[in-house]
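Dock adenosine-5'-diphosphate; give full complex structure.
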Amino acid sequence: MNNNVTPYKLTLYISVGVALLSVALHLIHSYFSNDQYDWIFLSLLFGILFLVTYSMTRYFLERYIYNRIKPIYKIIRKGTVNKEKISGEAFSTDVIKSLNSEVSKWRDETTKEIDSLKSLEEYRKSYVGNISHELKTPLFSIQGYIHTLLEGVEDTKIQRKFLLRAAANTDRLLNIVKDLEVITRIEEGSVFLEKENFSIVKMTKEIFQDLDLKAKEQNISLKLGEGSSQNFFVHADRESVQRIMSNLITNSIKYCKVDGSTVVSFYSMDKDVLIEIADNGIGIEEKHLKHIFDRFYRTDQSRNRNIGGSGLGLSIVKHLIEAHKKTITVKSELEKGTTFGFTLDKAKK
Ligand code: ADP
């Protein structure tokens, strides 16, 4: 069947062909037997033969095509096959051509579905692997300290030191589990934002106070930069923003260089406020930048620093910012420093 011939056209050609052939045979017969042509009879013969051939060919062709393509449609149209519709469609269109395009569309969709299932499975495997890896490190430390203490340590100072280390690792374990819970709740969509108006500058000052001791230990200065005199009010979920800001400022202290500084600036952008947290710390290599918001992702420098991160902080930050329908950006240069920037809605006056 060539590209333009539909079963409908084929039926028409056959019916006209059969009717014409019969009329021609009748004419030849009349010619040789010297009979008179009866035009009314010939017209009737043509009409009746045309109708009978058309109906019969159509009936058998429709049945034949329907039985052949039904199993394919059952698969690609996921079980919903309407006999009248399919027979009608198959009869009046170039069925092979439309079946071909429908099958290739179905194949593309199915390939996509399989690919996404495969990557979900990969993701699940690496997620479970990452969790057990992150939990194993502090658990091994706790186990080591407890067993050493059980074997008997005379010196009370060392006993206390080991207990303090075990306690610190327990805290770390708990923090990882809490972070995982937060991520799961955000992904499940069960975190509800309670938006309110508050001063982002005032919140930053409070976080500076909370982190003052940590910053002093590293000789880092925490500073308010541009826009801090304007006392910007934002409309957002206070608890989430508190978490975002604490996380970003804590990171700037964790990944600092001695005597470094962290500057938080605020910029007015039409309906938004842009908040930038800039440090002059160790920076992040270009190749790591697109991954740092992934769960459990940590750069080699931060692993080497052995500061006990889990690589979940920035993932939570990104999730919370996206829950506010905003985005976070990062600029960084190795050994020069890093700047994170994100926007929040300005409070409506
Ligand atoms: P972590 O618990 O390791 O700090 P995060 O998700 O907060 O996890 O950060 C992911 C990684 O991004 C860190 O391990 C670190 O390598 C890098 N990073 C984050 N913030 C900074 C920063 N201010 N300076 C340099 N590197 C950073």
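Observed: Residues 211 and 250 are 7 Å apart (CA to CA).
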